[in-house]
Design goal:
The chain has 4 helices and no strands. The chain has 66 residues and is mostly helical. Helix 1 crosses helix 2 and helix 1 packs across helix 3.
C-alpha cells in the first residue's frame, strides 16, 4: 500500500494521547498493518489538530495522483 506522509513532528505516544488511540495501533498504521476506519480517521485528525476534511482531501489527492 502507498503511504501518505503528513508530518507533524509528533511522537506516537503524543499522538496516542491526543487522539485516544492505542500507541501500538498507531505504530501498526505506520507499518501498513491496518487500514484505518472512518472513526480512526476522525481521531487522527483530532490528534494531529487538523480539519477532518483537510485530511480527507490530502488522502484523495494522494491516491488520485498516485
Amino acid at each position: 500500500m502507498k503511504r501518505l506522509r503528513m508530518s507533524k513532528q509528533m511522537s506516537q505516544e503524543d499522538l496516542s494521547n491526543r487522539s485516544s488511540l492505542d500507541r501500538g495501533y498507531i505504530s501498526d498504521l505506520e507499518l501498513d498493518k491496518h487500514e484505518p476506519g472512518l472513526g480512526t480517521l476522525f481521531a487522527l485528525a483530532i490528534g494531529l489538530d487538523i480539519d477532518f476534511m483537510d485530511l480527507m482531501q490530502a488522502i484523495h489527492e494522494y491516491y488520485k495522483n498516485g
